[in-house]
Amino acid sequence: MHSGHLIVITGPSGVGKSTIVQEVLHRTNARYSVSVTTREPRPGEIDGKDYHFIDKQRFEKMIQRGELLEWAEVFGNYYGTPAKPVYEALKAGETIILEIDIQGGLQVHEKIPYATFILILPPSWDELLNRLIKRSTEPPEAIKRRFAKAKEEIELAQKSKVYDYTVINDKLENAIEDVIKIVNSVSEKTRKDN
Ligand code: 5GP
Q1: Domains of the chain with CATH codes
Q2: Cα-to-centroid distance, 50 and ligand 1 (Å)
Q3: CA–CA separation, 59 vs 54, rounded Å?
């Protein structure tokens, strides 16, 4: 019996989903699912808070042991959601938020179809490209790769029809408020599928 709620927030790289999620976590009672990753920590990131930073060997062990709810390779690094904390939070009646990429979101849908799926989209392709350029220290080739991947992923997401809500991140504050409304309304619901 699971009485909690799982909310999967996804969208292409560069759309601003982590900024939105950080703010939503401050302003709601929802908990955050800390992913494991093989990528190097960025300056200011805290192990155990932003991610659990682990090596590839340990990541592969977690896959083999079935400890990940989903996982994906994103630009050469592995990212995954540890399953146990998610199921524990659901059992404890909590609302837990996953901020993951689109392929990961689709995997979660296969295992936990009653989760709520939110897709964050940019206001336009041009705007997404601008944001990728602005925030990146990477060479143009890498930015182009991210942009192409983002387009592909959005098309995949839209075709999949797993998304309950689409939020356009045009004005950041509006997008944050839209997501907060969804989180609050989902959290208040009594799950009918228990
Ligand atoms: P970053 O390296 O910028 O923190 O994240 C890169 C991408 O990986 C983002 O789109 C982020 O949402 C995604 N990501 C972070 N954690 C996970 C995870 O546990 N699983 C999956 N599938 N994607 C993740």
Answers
A1: 5-193 (3.40.50.300)
A2: 11
A3: 7
